[in-house]
Amino acid sequence: MGDAVDPSAASTSLLYQGTRTLLLDCGPAIVKVALRALGDPNELDAVWISHQHADHCFGLPTLLLMLRQARRSKTLELLGGPGSGAIIQQLLDIGYPGAFRAPKCFPIHFSEISPSQTLEFAGLRLSTAQTQHGVVCHALRIDAAGHCVCFSSDGKLNNATLALYREADLVVHECQSVECESINHCRLADLPSLFSVANVHQLALVHCSSHERAAVAERSRFLFGARAFMPEPGDSINLGRPIGCWTR
Ligand SMILES: [Zn+2]
Fold first, then answer.
1. Calpha distance 2→11 (Å, rounded)
2. Ligand 1 midpoint to CA 134 (Å)
3. pTM recorded for the entire structure
4. 154 CA distance to ligand 1 centroid (A)?
5. How far is the CA of 52 from the centre of ligand 1 (A)?
6. pLDDT digits over 65-100, tens only?
7. How many whole angstroms from 135 Cα to the centroid of ligand 1?
8. Residues with beta carbon < 5 A to ion ligand 1?
């Protein structure tokens, strides 16, 4: 999975399919892939938007328009951190003005999840923490019966996100480079504490620079062994225990 300017790989979105179905981030490249994976336009329960950068949310207007055209009827939850509702609404109004308002469109409901609260969402417990990034960006934790998955989206690991990931079965975390220092992005050298402090079980490394991907993979094998891996587009993981079952 690439970074925002990778010519060979799309940026990362995650389709969570449990008792509810959530799309985590919605860059332009993921829309048609996600719709093919869903099949039924009513299957998607919510879309989580981590932050306003284009590679993480500019696919949303197209996704909603295609769901409308497919005659979706169910309410869609749009989720994000504090302040995300106004940004998402602005994005939708710029993309397709008026297209997502009643009665033209299925109902859309916004929920902002503050790091100080937990949102109960149809059997899932959703929690957030702000990452260290160039704009406000929130990581998401999903707790469900029997498993926990976390999604960092963009940004450096910090004490808040490290606490959010504690004991997670799977953390999908950005890792732009092996050791190139950045104030907005993570390097592999920042991540050992996911295991030593947060006791995370498995780590998926995404958002790698194209010229660093091979080096990140090699160094990750040395540092973390089978506990970390770099998924390819279309990979899936079964979070039912025992975890670690990947298919493509
Ligand atoms: Zn970003």
1. 5
2. 7
3. 0.92
4. 5
5. 7
6. 999 999 999 999 999 999 999 999 999 999 999 999
7. 7
8. 53, 154
Residue with tokens 């039912």: 240
Would you say domain 14-247 falls under CATH 2.60.40.1400?
no
Stretch 141-162: mean pLDDT: 95
Exposure b/e, 37-69, CB count within 10 A at least 16 = b? bbeebbebbbbbbbbbbebbbbbbbbbbbbbbe
Q: How far apart are the C-alpha atoms of 159 and 166, rounded to whole Å?
A: 11
Q: How far is the CA of 130 from the centre of ligand 1 (A)?
A: 12
For the stretch 51-66, pLDDT in tens is 999 999 999 999 999 9
Measured in Å, residue 56 CA sits from the centre of ligand 1 at: 7
Maximum CA extent, the chain: 56
Give domain limits for the chain: 14-247
How far is the centre of ligand 1, averaged over its atoms, from the C-alpha of 212 (Å)?
18
